[in-house]
Design goal:
Radius of gyration: 14 Å
Structural class: alpha/beta
Largest sheet: 5 strands, mixed
Helix content: 40-55%
CATH topology: Nucleotidyltransferase, domain 5
Oligomer: single chain
Number of strands: 5
Shape: globular
CATH architecture: 2-Layer Sandwich
Length: 138
Amino acid sequence: MIYLGIDPGKTGALAIPDCRLVEDMPNGPHALLELLSTWPASVTAVIERQQAMPVTGRAASFVIGEGYGIIQGVLAARRVPYRIINAATWKRQMGLTADKEMVRAKARELFPWAELHLKKHEGRAHALMLAEWGRRFA
């Protein structure tokens, strides 16, 4: 089984470590559909669950929900099965904490070929680790 890790959001990313593919989240449904159409179709996606936070305003919560729904819709249109997992759950099972730098360090260790050297690459690291969680636990 090949897993596609998806860290939703504006600074999120998608990754298929088995194919050495990692990309920042495309902007909009058409760009996401176009990207996925060039990647292997026989994958199972693992998506980090998104939710509104108490400090997030209504407008921002709407944007988060809209992007999260677009991802699920594009996966459904491409007939890609997916599983949604809470961040706390996959991180705990992978021996990680909420510390984003810890996640990036672990991803650099497991995937030395991936470009993860900048702090802004945390979405890529999360996507890689979500796919690895799928490989190990799904």
